[in-house]
Amino acid sequence: MPTDYFAFYGLPESFQPDEAALKRLYYAKSRETHPDFHATSSAENQADMLQQATLNTDAYRTLSDPDKRMAYILRQHGLLEEGKQEQLPPDFLMDMMDLNEQLMDLETDLNADTVAQVAAEVQALTDTLDAGIQPVLAGYEGLPSDHRPAALQQIRTYYLKKRYLLRIQQQVATFAARS
Q1: Residues 73 and 154 sit within 8 Å (Cβ to Cβ)
Q2: CB 110 within 8 Å of CB 179
Q3: Mind giving me the DSSP string for the chain?
Q4: Distance between CA atoms of 170 and 92, rounded to whole angstroms?
Q5: Are the beta carbons of 158 and 126 closer than 8 angstroms?
Q6: What pLDDT sits at residue 2?
Q7: Which end of the chain has less Cβ packing within 10 Å, N or C?
Q8: What's the longest Cα–Cα distance across the chain?
């Protein structure tokens, strides 16, 4: 199992950690492990400090980015696997059929008004999705451990839907650039 980045910083697992505290901890660890401060120590200690500095950088990059942090937490709990094609809920895919049909129509008939309409629809879906998950993300840290698995499943579903909508947004942006 990879290193627990939250434990590395002494923080509780959270989808919305204290960003200022995270940054302070990162800088403090950076000062502790910077190779320049260990140039005269043993080769073994230098190697250990370099490893700690790398861990610090990786942990901060992951935990300071909301999407990377979400994916990291889901992976830590075995709910997301690197490189695995994850299944979306069938009802969501059915809802996306109309959008996908509109995208296919844009392939043959590029129309700036239709591009703008699809972009607005995708943004509205994204905003609704984000608003629906916010209470779960905000309350996760305070949940009893026996309630966390259900919350994690909700967050996983949100994450997969969000990634799907992001791909559609990228396609729409490509069409917008062409129109």
Answers
A1: no
A2: yes
A3: ----HHHHHT----SS--HHHHHHHHHHHHHHH-GGGGTTS-HHHHHHHHHHHHHHHHHHHHHTSHHHHHHHHHHHTTS--TT--PPPPHHHHHHHHHHHHHHHHHHHS--HHHHHHHHHHHHHHHHHHHHHHHHHHHHGGGS-TTTHHHHHHHHHHHHHHHHHHHHHHHHHHHHHHH-
A4: 19
A5: no
A6: 59
A7: N
A8: 67
Task: Name the pTM for this structure.
Answer: 0.88
The two three-digit tokens of residue 75, written as one number: 């992976």
| Contact of 16 with 9, CB cutoff 8 Å | no
Residue tagged 């059915």 (tokens): 94
17-35 per-position pLDDT tens digit: 999 999 999 999 999 988 7
First and final C-alpha spacing in the chain: 48
User: 35-54 burial, b if ≥16 CB within 10 A, otherwise e?
Assistant: eeebeeeeeeeeeebeebbe
Place of tokens 């451990």: 145
Asked if residue 138 lies in contact with residue 16, where contact means CB atoms within 8 angstroms, the answer is yes
